[in-house]
Specification:
The complex is a heterodimer of chains A (about 250) and B (about 400). Chain A has 9 helices and 10 strands. Chain A is α/β, with parallel strands linked by helices and about 250 residues long. Chain A has one domain (about 1-10, about 50-75, about 95-245): 3-Layer(aba) Sandwich (Rossmann fold). Chain A has a 6-stranded mixed beta sheet with strand order 6-7-8-3-9-10. Chain A has a 4-stranded antiparallel beta sheet with strand order 2-1-4-5, covered by helices on one side. In chain A, helix 5 crosses helix 6, helix 6 crosses helix 7 (about 165-175) and helix 7 (about 165-175) packs parallel to helix 8. Chain B folds into 2 domains: about 5-50 and about 260-410, no CATH class; about 65-220, no CATH class. Chain B has 15 helices and 14 strands. Chain B has a 6-stranded mixed beta barrel. In chain B, strand 2 and strand 3 form a beta hairpin. In chain B, helix 1 packs across helix 12 and helix 2 (about 15-55) packs across helix 12. The longest helix of chain B is centred in the N-terminal third of the chain and has 41 residues, at about 15-55. The radius of gyration of chain B is 30 Å and the shape is elongated. The two termini of chain B are about 25 Å apart. Classes of the chains: A alpha/beta (about 250), B alpha+beta (about 400). The interface of A and B includes residues 119 and 126 of A.
C-alpha cells in the first residue's frame, strides 16, 4: 500500500488546502415522500471531506447521518445540490458508472457487517477485487496483507457464522479497504459489538487512517466513538449543526 | 470467487428447498420422457401396423388410383419399379400388391369385402399384418393356385372352415364382372372387426389372370422403410425420379389420411400435456428463485453497494437457475433410466382396460404400453425443460437487479 500511503498522506491543513477534497457536498438536499408527508432527510448540506480525514457524523436517530452517507456513497441520489466524490459529480453519471465509482473509489462498512454468508473471510475480503478483475496472484497478496493488517491472519477460511461479531466487522473493514478506495464510509460500525470489541475496531480504523492514510467517514451517536474522531460533524434535523476538528 | 462458484454455493444454502425443486425438475423429465416416449412408440407402431396392412410407408400406385380406386388403373413394369426402389438405402422392403373390392360367396351366403393379392415370396410377418395374424392354416405358398386366406369374422359370416370353397367376384381390367373359385387355406384374426370381417388374401398371379392383368402389372407397390419418419422425404425422392413419373407416389400420411389426422390430433393433446408439465416445472423453479431472491434482498443491496453491477447480479441469479436446472436434469436422467428400460422392454399391459379389439383409426394396436424415445425427442425434452428452467429464473434475476441498493439495505 505504498502508493496509497503517498496518495492519502495529507493530514496537514496545508496539504488539504492545495488538494481537491475527496468529497464535496454543495447545498445538498434529500427529500423523501412518506405517504403524503415530505421528509427533509438532508437539508442544504455543504461540506468537504479531505484526504486523511477521520471524521464522525454525529447526531441522534433521524438526524440524517445515514441518508448523508448514502448520498456520498452513491447509493442514493440527492433531490438537489451537488455531490462530488473523488472529482466525480455523482449526478452526472448513470447507474453503471455509479457502480464503478462505488467499486473503485468507495469502501463501505455497515452496521451489521453484511458479509456474504457462503463466502469465507478471504473470499469476502476479495469480493470487490474480483469484481474489479484483479488477477488472482495480486488479489491473494493484497487480501492476505489486508487480513493481516486487520488482525485476521489465520482466519481466512472461516465463514461468517464461524466468527465473532468483531471478527466479522474486521472482515468488513478489510473488504472496504483492500481496494484502496478514496474514502471508507462506515455506518455505525461499532453499534452491534460490545464495548471492548468497539474499542479494538476503533483502534484498527485509526491505525489504518494514521499509518495507511485511509480516509474514514463514519456515522455514530456513541459519545465514546465520537471522542476518537479528529473531526466531528454534528447533524440535526438533516442539517449540519456544527463541524469542528478535535484532538483524536 | 467467480459467479459460478458463488451461484453453486448459494443453491445449497437451503438444501431441502433445492432438493425439492431439483426433484420436481427430475420428475418433469420422467413425465416428459414417458409422454413423449409413449407417443414415439405408439405412433411408430400405428404407422408401421398401418403400413403392413397393405400400403406401406410409401405407396407407388397408378395415377389417380388413390382418389378414385378402380382395377382398371394399374401400374406397369412393376418388377423394374420394385427393383429400383429396393436399391434405395432407407428402403427395407417393397411388395407388389393388387387390392380391390370383391363379393365373397360360400355355399350358404355372400358378403362384400376387400381382397389383397400378394406374392408370398415378397411377404413376411414383418411387412404383412395378415401373415402374423394367421390363427389357422398357413400363409400362401405360391403366387399361383387357388388358395385364399380369409379374416376370422368373414369366415364366420360365410360359415367357412379350412378347405372350404369360396367364390370371389370382382370387375376385371375392362370393367367386366369376373369370378373365380378358391379354397380356404388359412384364417387370420387381426383383432380389428372391420378388417377381420371383410378382408381376404389371394395369390397375385391367380388374381392377375382373373383380372386380365399382365404378369408385371399391379395396382400398387408398398414400400416399407427402415424408419417411418423418412416417409415424406422418401416420397419426394421417388416422385422426383423419372422412372416413377407415370406413377403417383404417396407417403403414408397421404395414403392413410384418417390415421395421419388421428395421430396429429393425439400429438396435439400430447404436446399440451407436455407444455403443462413444463409449466409446472417452471413454476417450481420460479417459486424457488423468487423466494431465494426475496430473502436475500439485503445481501444483494450490499453487493451492489460495494460495486456489483445489476447485470452481474442478473447473471448470478441466472447461474443459480442454470445449476438448479442442471441438478434437476441430471437427477431426472438418473431416475428415468431404470424406468425407461422397464417401459421399453416390458411395458404395461392395457389389454384388461381396452379389451381384445384394440385399434386406433382402423389400425391394430399393441395393448402393451411401451415407450421408445427418438434421439431428437431426448434433445427436445432436455432442451425444452432447460429453457423453461432458465426462463423461470429470468424474472427473479431481473427483479434482483432492479431494487436500488439503498432500498435493499433497508430490508431486514
Amino acid at each position: 500500500m505504498t502508493d496509497q500511503n503517498n496518495k492519502h498522506d495529507t493530514h496537514s491543513p496545508l496539504n488539504a488546502a492545495v488538494q481537491h477534497p475527496i468529497v464535496r457536498l454543495s447545498d445538498v438536499c434529500k427529500t423523501y415522500e412518506q405517504g403524503k408527508v415530505r421528509v427533509n432527510a438532508v437539508h442544504d448540506v455543504s461540506l468537504d471531506i479531505q484526504h486523511g480525514d477521520f471524521a464522525a457524523l454525529c447526531g441522534p436517530s433521524g438526524s440524517g447521518k445515514t441518508s448523508l452517507l448514502n448520498l456520498i456513497g452513491g447509493l442514493d441520489v440527492s433531490s438537489s445540490g451537488t455531490v462530488i466524490v473523488d472529482g466525480i459529480d455523482l449526478a452526472t453519471i448513470d447507474g453503471s458508472e455509479l457502480s464503478e465509482v462505488r467499486k473503485n473509489r468507495i469502501g463501505f462498512v455497515f452496521q451489521s457487517y453484511n458479509l456474504i454468508p457462503v463466502m469465507t473471510a478471504y473470499e469476502n475480503a476479495a469480493f470487490v477485487l474480483n469484481l474489479q478483475g484483479v488477477d488472482e496472484t495480486e488479489c491473494r497478496d493484497r487480501v492476505m496483507a489486508t487480513l493481516k493488517a486487520v488482525g485476521l491472519e489465520g482466519l481466512e477460511k472461516r465463514r461468517p457464522d464461524e466468527m465473532s461479531g468483531g471478527q466479522q466487522q474486521r472482515v468488513a473493514i478489510a473488504r472496504a479497504i483492500v481496494t484502496e478506495p478514496a474514502i471508507v464510509l462506515a455506518d455505525e460500525p461499532t453499534a452491534n459489538v460490545d464495548s471492548h470489541t468497539a474499542e479494538s475496531l476503533l483502534d484498527l480504523m485509526e491505525q489504518l487512517n494514521r499509518q495507511q492514510g485511509v480516509t474514514f467517514l463514519f456515522s455514530t451517536h456513541d459519545q465514546h466513538v465520537m471522542d476518537r474522531a479528529r473531526r466531528i460533524i454534528q447533524m440535526h434535523d438533516g442539517k449540519v449543526a456544527s463541524d469542528h476538528a478535535q484532538a483524536g | 470467487m467467480n459467479l459460478n462458484r458463488l451461484a453453486w454455493r448459494n443453491l445449497w444454502r437451503r438444501k431441502r428447498r433445492t432438493m425439492i425443486t431439483g426433484f420436481s425438475v427430475a420428475f418433469g423429465v420422467m413425465l416428459a420422457v414417458t409422454f413423449t416416449g409413449a407417443g414415439d412408440y405408439f405412433y411408430t407402431r400405428m404407422i408401421d401396423a398401418g403400413a403392413s396392412m397393405g400400403m406401406g410407408h410409401v405407396t407407388i400406385e397408378a395415377v389417380d388410383y388413390h382418389r378414385a380406386p378402380s382395377l382398371k388403373k394399374r401400374l406397369q413394369h412393376v418388377e423394374s419399379l420394385r427393383e429400383k426402389a429396393l436399391q434405395l438405402p432407407q428402403v427395407s422392403d417393397v411388395m407388389t400388391r393388387i387390392t380391390g373390392q370383391a363379393m365373397f360367396a360360400s355355399a350358404s351366403k355372400s358378403v362384400g369385402g376387400m381382397f389383397i393379392a400378394v406374392d408370398p415370396a415378397q411377404e413376411n410377418s414383418e411387412n404383412n399384418l395378415f401373415i402374423r395374424s394367421i390363427i389357422e392354416g398357413s400363409m400362401l405358398s405360391s403366387p399361383e393356385g387357388r388358395n385364399i386366406i380369409v379374416g376370422s369374422k368373414l369366415a364366420q359370416k360365410l360359415h367357412l372352415r379350412m378347405g372350404k370353397k369360396v367364390v370371389y367376384t370382382t370387375t376385371d381390367v375392362h370393367g367386366e364382372i369376373v369370378s373365380a373359385i378358391a379354397r380356404v387355406s388359412g384364417i387370420f384374426e387381426t383383432g380389428i372387426s372391420e378388417v377381420d370381417g371383410a378382408m381376404a388374401m389371394l395369390p397375385i398371379h391367380s388374381v392377375q389372370k382373373v383380372l386380365g392383368y399382365q404378369v408385371d402389372e399391379a395396382t400398387l407397390l408398398g414400400i416399407i422403410l427402415k424408419d417411418q419418419r423418412f416417409s415424406k422425404s422418401m416420397r419426394d425422392k421417388l416422385a422426383a425420379m423419372p422412372l416413377y413419373s407415370k406413377a403417383e407416389v404417396l407417403s403414408w400420411q397421404q395414403s392413410q389420411p384418417e390415421l395421419a389426422g388421428m395421430i396429429a390430433v393425439d400429438k396435439s393433446s400430447n404436446y399440451i400435456s407436455q407444455l403443462l408439465i413444463g409449466l409446472l416445472v417452471a413454476a417450481g423453479i420460479l417459486n424457488t428463485m423468487l423466494m431465494s431472491v426475496l430473502e436475500r434482498t439485503r445481501e444483494f443491496g450490499v453487493m451492489m453497494a460495494v460495486g456489483m453491477a445489476p447485470g452481474a447480479l442478473f447473471r448470478l441469479i441466472m447461474l443459480e437457475s442454470f445449476w438448479l436446472a442442471v441438478i434437476g436434469l441430471i437427477a431426472g436422467i438418473i431416475i428415468t433410466i431404470p424406468w425407461y428400460i422397464y417401459m421399453a422392454n416390458t411395458g404395461i399391459d392395457l389389454s384388461g382396460a381396452y379389451g381384445d379389439d384394440f385399434n386406433f383409426a382402423g389400425v391394430l394396436l399393441d395393448p402393451v404400453m411401451k415407450i421408445r424415445l427418438f434421439q431428437e425427442s431426448i434433445v427436445a425434452i432436455l432442451l425444452g425443460l432447460f429453457t423453461l428452467a432458465l426462463a423461470a429464473g429470468a424474472y427473479p434475476a431481473w427483479r434482483a437487479g432492479r431494487i436500488p441498493p439503498v432500498e435493499s439495505l433497508k430490508t431486514i
